[in-house]
Amino acid sequence: MENHQLGTEIADALGLLLRRSTRARLYGRLTDGLPVDEFGYPVLSALARAGACSAAELAGEVGLDRTVVTRRATHLETAGLLRREPDPADRRATLLLLTDEGTAVVAELRRRLATLIADSLHDWPPTEAQAFAAGLTRFVADGPFS
Amino acid sequence: MENHQLGTEIADALGLLLRRSTRARLYGRLTDGLPVDEFGYPVLSALARAGACSAAELAGEVGLDRTVVTRRATHLETAGLLRREPDPADRRATLLLLTDEGTAVVAELRRRLATLIADSLHDWPPTEAQAFAAGLTRFVADGPFS
DNA sequence: CTGATTTGCGTGCGCTGTGCACGCTATCCT
DNA sequence: AGGATAGCGTGCACAGCGCACGCAAATCAG
């Protein structure tokens, strides 16, 4: 079973990726100088992907507790990156949506990350890089991450 | 600049990998039924790679504070997975080393992870899987993770 | 139509992991 | 020898996290 050996190789690489410090360092670099920290980033990014929605929906998206998203949203609201708005269809619900500045910050964050990654792929043969990107996407999609 | 688009694609995949919940869930599955939790696992695994060494060295390896490793090591020591031993060469230093059970647990953990990954690669064309493993290793090595 | 139940949201509270500062012991340098 | 340095472990404060509670609005039962 040579796949098992591949599993070991991938496991080593994943070990580094999953470190807290790795995530903290990466997010720290990305958010440097921007009015958002490593904790607000995932919420902001998820909101950009999902569009206007409730904190509970965002919680499922980010993989955190509902109340945590609420607190982070409040923080981001104070920073002026998102705003709350009563749901016109359901007056007990509160919609979270990006402000213009929030949209700009998300765009900048995504640009920085994409650039960072593209730079590290700079010396790769184009076909190899493309294959890796596709492979990673596939691996994450149906990998051991339910 | 098409690399930039690749960067965006990879960024999306990384976003999921870097989630706290992803790591917690994966480590939870791996350590299920074993006398080690998601916090002890990195320390145990690093100790297996590095061999007998001090907590400070392990801290650099894992990317945590020295005192945190000390506490986790104490926890693992209570569980019987590692033991402390005064460094014969330097009597103020304390060596951390795996017990037999600790070695067995690490082996089981690595086996589980490798199996998990290998399973998710089951349907992949062999060459594609191999290319992905190599790509991931390379990407992690000289990627944006200093 | 009215009262009870459910749903969604925000906040108070306790828990836990983390890092810093401190004290102690052993080693190294002068 | 004696002061400076290095290595460990622990007390402490801080912050993120999830649970439980209370309130407002909507839905359901009768």
Question: What is the mean predicted local confidence, pLDDT of chain A?
Answer: 94
Would you state the CATH class of the domain at 35-116 in chain A? Mainly Alpha
Rg on CA atoms of chain A, Å: 18 Å
CATH architecture of the domain at 35-116 in chain A: Orthogonal Bundle
- Assembly level: homodimer
**How many E strands of chain A?**
2
Low-confidence stretches of chain A: none
- Shape, principal axes of CA atoms of chain A: globular
Instruction: Kindly identify the CATH topology of the domain at 35-116 in chain A.
Output: Arc Repressor Mutant, subunit A
Which pair of chains has the greatest number of interface residues, and how are they split between the two chains? A-B, 63 and 63 residues
Condensed summary:
Chain A has 146 residues and is mainly alpha-helical.
Give your account of this protein's structure.
The structure is a homodimer of 146-residue chains. In chain A, helix 3 (40-50) crosses helix 4, helix 3 crosses helix 6 and helix 4 (55-62) packs across helix 5. The mean pLDDT of chain A is 94. Chain A has a two-stranded antiparallel ribbon. Helix content of chain A is 67%, strand content 10%. Chain A has a domain at 35-116: Arc Repressor Mutant, subunit A (Orthogonal Bundle). The two termini of chain A are 24 Å apart. The first copy, chain A, has helices at 2-17, 20-31, 40-50, 55-62, 66-78, 100-120, 126-142, and strands at 82-87, 90-98. Chain A contains 7 helices and 2 strands, in the order H-H-H-H-H-E-E-H-H. The first copy, chain A, is mainly α. In chain A, a hairpin with a 2-residue loop joins strand 1 (82-87) and strand 2 (90-98). The interface between A and B is large, with 63 and 63 residues. Chain B binds a DNA duplex (30 and 30 nucleotides) through residues 20, 39, 54-56, 64-68, 70-71, 74, 87, 90-94.
